[in-house]
Design a protein that fits this description.
The chain is built from nine helices and no strands. The protein has helices at about 10-30, 35-45, 60-75, 80-95, 105-125, 130-135, 140-160, 165-175, 185-200.
Length: about 200
């Protein structure tokens, strides 16, 4: 489908597209299981040919991605959940919230970290589902990834939420339950970030 500029769309076309896409999003939000995922994928696909008009960060794109994270997690599709979470991390929130310590960015990174830890747990238990196996070709250093995101959150919390807040205390408790003894992870972090960005760009539209 050839690209069309925003000026080439009529008000009626945009209104119809948005109405249909948002209706599918709402149906996804109120559904469960595979049906939920189907509604959300249809909504995402509807806007996909019009990226010049609906860049990834324009509503309802961020809301669709958020719901897709949850839907894939519920179905155990960990690679897809991770890829959508990384789309938000790399391509949406830096545009909507330019400050790295914006509370929304901190929360999304926290969600991303929990998805990664869930995947690491599955792998440590020998649960190598097809979903997780899709990530093997990227040869990620998961320990460096966990440490990198932990440090990003820890560094951002004082400005985003304040050091003496319930969120800060909750995260400190969370940290106690995550092994963090990995010396030299800083040298690997930028390399791992590049791999994570590839996952965001290659595994989902």
């Amino acid at each position: 489908m050839p690209k069309r500029l925003l000026s080439e769309f009529s008000v009626e076309e945009v209104a119809k597209l948005e109405t249909e896409g948002i209706d599918l999003l709402v149906s996804g939000e109120t559904s469960h299981g595979q049906q939920r995922l189907d509604f959300l994928n249809r909504s995402l696909k509807l806007f996909s040919p019009y990226k010049d008009v609906y860049p990834i960060w324009r509503y309802p794109g961020p809301s669709i991605r958020h719901e897709l994270q949850i839907a894939h997690m519920e179905l155990g599709n960990w690679s897809a959940a991770l890829a959508h979470a990384l789309k938000v991390y790399f391509h949406i929130e830096p545009v909507l919230y330019p400050l790295k310590w914006h509370p929304q960015r901190i929360v999304q990174t926290y969600v991303l970290l929990k998805i990664i830890l869930e995947m690491v747990y599955h792998m440590s238990q020998g649960i190598h589902s097809e979903s997780v196996e899709k990530l093997e070709k990227y040869k990620l250093d998961w320990a460096a990834v966990v440490m990198g995101f932990m440090k990003e959150i820890e560094t951002a919390i004082p400005q985003g939420f304040g050091s003496d807040t319930s969120f800060a205390r909750d995260f400190q408790e969370f940290q106690k339950n995550v092994p963090t003894q990995y010396f030299g992870w800083e040298a690997e972090w930028q390399l791992e970030r590049a791999k994570l960005k590839k996952i965001a760009d290659e595994l989902v539209d």
